Amino acid sequence: MPSHEFQSHDHSHCVSDAMNAALLHCEKNSLKFTPVRQRVFEILLSEHKAMGAYDILEILAKEGMGSQPPVVYRALDFLGTHGFVHKIEKLNAFVACEHPGSDHDPAFMICRSCTKVVEMEGSPNSEISTAAKSMGFEVEAIVVEAEGLCPTCQDTE
Amino acid sequence: MPSHEFQSHDHSHCVSDAMNAALLHCEKNSLKFTPVRQRVFEILLSEHKAMGAYDILEILAKEGMGSQPPVVYRALDFLGTHGFVHKIEKLNAFVACEHPGSDHDPAFMICRSCTKVVEMEGSPNSEISTAAKSMGFEVEAIVVEAEGLCPTCQDTE
DNA sequence: GAGGGCTTGATATACTATAACAGTTCATAT
DNA sequence: ATATGAACTGTTATAGTATATCAAGCCCTC
Questions:
Q1: Is there a contact between A141 and A105 (Cβ–Cβ < 8 Å)?
Q2: Rounded CA gap, A83 and A98, in Å?
Q3: Which residues in chain B are closer than 8 Å to A134, comparing Cβ atoms?
Q4: Which listed site, A94, B13, B35, B134, has its alpha carbon 20 to 30 Å from A52?
C-alpha cells in the first residue's frame, strides 16, 4: 500500500483498515466505541481532509445523532485520547489517524490548495527532540504541521 | 548572551534589542510602525510568554488605544507578516520573535507549567522538510511546537 | 488640493470550545 | 434481582477566538 495518500488510491482500504484497527483496539481495551463515536470516526475517515467540529456536527445532526457541540467535541476527545484522530492546530480541525493503535507524535503535510492532510511516515521529529533536550527542555508532545503544495496541486499551478 | 531564555537573564536586552531591530527594519522597508503596532509589540516583548489577543486588547483598552478586537488583530497581523511576532497555534496565542528581521521557520518549546515559550535555535526543521520533499510535497511554512517542561519546572516537580 | 492607498474606529457577527447539570445506560457487587 | 456507581448522552448556556464590513481620518504624491 502506497504511503502517498495525496495520489489517488484505493480509499476504501484506508477506511476499512482504520475502522477495523479501531474496533479491535477498543475491544482489547474495553473501550466503548459507541455509535456516535464510530460515526464521527467514519465521517473523518471518509476523506483525507481535516474537518471542523461543526462540519461534523452538521452531518450528525442530519442523521439525528445529536445536534449540540458537546456531542461532537466529546466524541473527538475520545477519539483523540485513544489515537484514532488528530487535531490540526493550524486549522482548528480534525483528521482521522492513519496508524491507529500505535502511540506516536504525528507530523502532517497540509495542502493549501486541495486541503488534503496526510500524516508523514516515520515521525521525523527526532531532530526537534534532540534540539530541545540540548537546552534541557523535556518534550512531552510535539505539534508538527507543514503547509504547502501536494504533488498533484504543484502540477496544476 | 545565553540562548536559554528559560533561565533568568537580563531581560531588558531582549526587549531593547528586538525593538531596535524592528524599528530599523521598518525604517529600511518603509513600513509604518504605528503607535498601536509598537505598543502591541512591546506588550508581547515584556515576557517570554504567549498572550492571547484579548489579553493584549485589555491592556490596550486601559491605555486608550483601541478597545475592539480588530485593532489588536490587525496589529498582530502586521507584526506577524513582518516576522516580529509568531502565533503559537496550540495556544491560540502570540509571542514576540526573538530574531526579528531574519526570515525563518521557528520552532517553539512551550512549558506547560510556567507557560514560558522559547524559540529554538537554528530552526531544527530540516528533517521534516526532507521527509516532506521525499513524498513530493512542497513545504512553504512549518509549525513546530513542543510542549513539555522547561529546566526550571522539571526541578520543582 | 484632489486622489488614492493605508490605517484606525466601530458595529456586528461568525467560528471554535467548554462548563454544568440532568437523565440514561450498563456492568458489577451485593 | 436490585442497588450502586461509572461512563455516556442530551441540553442549555456561555466563554473564548477571529473576521467581515463600512465609515472616517491620515499621509503621501502628483
A1: yes
A2: 10
A3: none
A4: B134
Chain A residue numbers touching B4 (CB-CB < 8 A): 135-136
Residue at A129: amino acid letter = S
Q: Give the whole-angstrom CA distance, residue A21 versus residue A131.
A: 34
pLDDT class for B11, splitting at 50, 70, 90?
A: confident
Domain ranges of chain A: 11-155
Architecture of the domain defined by B11-155:
Orthogonal Bundle (1.10)
Q: What is the pLDDT of residue B1?
A: 39
Q: Which of residues 105-144 of A touch strand C (CB under 7 A)?
A: none
A24–B contact, CB cutoff 8 A: no
- Please state whether strand D lies within 7 Å of residue B54 at its CB atom: yes
Report yes or no: B147 at the A interface, CB cutoff 8 Å: yes
Q: Is the pLDDT of residue A49 over 70?
A: yes
Determine phi and psi for A7, rounding to 5 degrees.
-80, 165
* 8 Å CB contact between B126 and A125: no
Residue entry with cell 510535539: A142
Distance CA B32, CA B8 (A): 33
Of residues B123, B137, B84, the one with CA closest to residue A151: B137
